[in-house]
Amino acid sequence: MFALSRQEIALVLVTMLWGSTFLIIHIAMQHSGPLFFVGVRFTIAGGMALLLFRKRMAAITRREIGAGIAIGSALFLGYFLQTYGLQTISSSQSAFITALYVPIVPLLQWAVLKKPPGLMSWVGVALAFTGLILLAGPQAGALSFSAGEAATLAGAAAIAAEIILIGLFAKSVDSRRVTAVQLLTAGLISFALMPLMGESVPAFSWLWAGAAIGLGLASAIIQLTMNWAQKSVSPTRATVIYAGEPVWGGIVGRLAGDRLPALALVGAGLIVAGVLASEAKFSRRKKPRTAAPGTEGAG
C-alpha cells in the first residue's frame, strides 16, 4: 500500500511552495537587482531562524558553523544565479532548467567523492541534457544558450552541491542551528558582493519588499524542513519528491500566462523524465534456495 511518512509529506508541501517561487522572483526582478533581492530574502530568513531558535543558538559548535557556512555559500550561488537568470527567461523555463540539479548530483559525486554514476544516472543525464536543448530553443543547437539560461544551469549545479553538503552534515549537526547560519551566510555574501559587482540599492517598492519578505519566510521554512526531513528520508527518495518542483513551477507559470512552444514542452517533459530516471533503482530478484534432501522442516 502506498503511504508517505510525515517527513515525506512535508517535502511534498515544500516542493509545491518551492515551485511557486519562480514566478514571484521573475516579477520582482523588474524592480530589483539579483544580489540585493537575494541578500534581503536570506537575511530576513536567517533573522527569523535566529529569533525562532535563539535558545538553541548558544550551544552551536564549530562543526555546525562550518557546515552552515559551506551550505550557505552553495545556497547563495544557486539562488543568485537562478535569480539573475529570471531577469531574462520565463519562470517556467527557470523551473525546468533548475530541475537539472538532480542528474547533476551523481556527476558531482563522481567528481568530488569518486563515486561513479550508475547506468540509470547516465540515462537521466542524457534525457535531461536533450530536454535542456529543446527547452532552450533552436538556437541552443549550436550550444549558444542565452546568458539567463546559462546562469540558471550553473545555479542548478550549485543547488546540487548544496544537496550533497546537506546530506554530508545532516546526521551530525543540529538542523535548526545550521539552518540559521546557512541562511545568514547566503544573505551576507549577497550584500558583500553588491559593491564589487556594481549593483546599487533599488528604489523602494512594495512589490520587491513584499516578495523578499514573503520569500524570506518561505526560505526559512524550506531550508529547515529539508534539513529536518533528510535526517530520515534518503537522498534518493527526497530527490524523487523534489522532481515535482518544475511541474509546480510550470503550472504556476502557465496560469500566469507563460506559453512555452510545443518543442519546449517536449524538452520540459524530457527533463522531468531524466530527473526520475536518474533516481530509478532496479534490484535483481534472488533465486530461492533449494533445500537439501532430508532437511525440509529442519530448525
Number of strands: 0
- What order do the helices and strands follow? HHHHHHHHHHHHH
Bulk shape:
globular
What fraction of residues sit in β-strands? Answer: under 5%
Quick one: biggest sheet? none
Give the proportion of residues in helices.
over 70%
Instruction: Report, as a whole number of angstroms, the end-to-end distance.
Output: 33 Å
Uncertain runs are: 290-299
Radius of gyration: 21 Å
Protein name: EamA domain-containing protein
Domain EamA: 9-135, 148-276
Membrane topology: Multi-pass membrane protein
Pfam family, one: EamA
Pick out its properties.
globular, disordered C terminus, 72% helix, mainly alpha, 299 residues, 13 helices, single chain
Structure explained in plain terms:
- By secondary structure, the protein is mainly alpha-helical.
- The protein has a domain at 6-117 and 141-197 and 204-233.
- Helices cover 72% and strands 0% of the residues.
- α5 packs antiparallel against α12 (245-255), α6 crosses α7 and α9 runs antiparallel to α10 (206-229).
- It starts with 5 loop residues before the first helix and ends in a 21-residue tail after the last helix.
- The model is unreliable at 290-299 (pLDDT under 50).
Structure in a nutshell:
With 299 residues, the chain is mainly alpha-helical.
Helices and strands, with pairings:
Elements: H1 6-28, H2 34-52, H3 54-57, H4 62-85, H5 91-98, H6 101-113, H7 119-136, H8 147-169, H9 175-197, H10 206-229, H11 235-242, H12 245-255, H13 262-278
Helix pairs in contact: 1-5, 1-10, 1-11, 1-12, 2-4, 2-9, 2-10, 4-8, 4-9, 5-8, 5-12, 6-7, 6-8, 7-13, 9-10
